Amino acid sequence: MQTNKIRPQPAIFFGHGSPGNVMEDNFITRTWENLGREFGKPKGIICISAHWYTRGVRVTAGAHPGTIHDFGGFPKAMYDMRYPAPGSPALAAAIRERLAPLDVELDEERGFDHGSWCVLAKVFPEADVPLVQVGMDASLSPSRHFEIGKALGAFRDEGYLLMGSGNIVHNLPEMDWQMRDGSYEWAGRFGDYIRGSIASDTPANLIDYTSQNRDALLSVPHPDHYLPLLYVMGARRENDPVRFETPIVEYGSLDMTTVVVGG
């Protein structure tokens, strides 16, 4: 008897950088487009975005979430953009069940923030793949975020793409707008340390990233953009191939590395 086995989906951490990338055709955005073509359309997407840092764990549960324009100072055309991907109340409910006994709130009002849609507009421009976002509870330790990622990783076997969206290094006050293709030494060191820890499959280093002292303090002044990486790495399985795309730093302090796990 033949069965139709679902191909496991990858887990991908996207270094999303500026929301303005959604309006550009550049090396970064072409890489995102290529990943969409490489893996094809999943059954759905579970996204952990830097821009939903919450009290408690929350999950978007509306059938038709709106597009949130949570940025400022960009052209009007960006505020007119919509990413009308469907939500999935059924997937949201399954996530809550999978994460039990952790208390998870289903949020029927929350839309898609730019950490998700500004990337996915390049990866899946037709906006026809169901999308659910999981908010990161600010009260949890890095190890707990990693463990939630491990639990969510089981959805990969059911045809769902697990997506993290943030930046390994994200320090906006230190950005140098004259240094589009340059890196501060501390940003380069921290990025190399994190990529090396991923390559050697040493998750303890990723969880205890503050051990890098001043480099970590400057690279991750607030954890919101770093933590989505821990969800993706939590979803990594033994023998999963891992590769780095766009391992570059922009403006001195934005590491644009995308990490592809499995697939």
Automatic annotation (TrEMBL):
- Record InterPro entries: Extradiol_dOase_DODA, Xdiol_dOase_suB
The lineage's top-level taxon is Bacteria
Give cofactor(s), names only: Zn(2+)
GO MF annotation, one:
ferrous iron binding
Q: What positions does the domain Extradiol ring-cleavage dioxygenase class III enzyme subunit B occupy?
A: 32-246
Arranged from A to Z, the UniProt key words for this protein are: Dioxygenase, Metal-binding, Oxidoreductase, Zinc
Q: Which Pfam families match?
A: LigB
Q: Which family does it belong to?
A: Belongs to the DODA-type extradiol aromatic ring-opening dioxygenase family.
What is the protein named? Answer: Extradiol ring-cleavage dioxygenase class III protein subunit B
Q: Name the lineage.
A: Bacteria, Pseudomonadati, Pseudomonadota, Alphaproteobacteria, Hyphomicrobiales
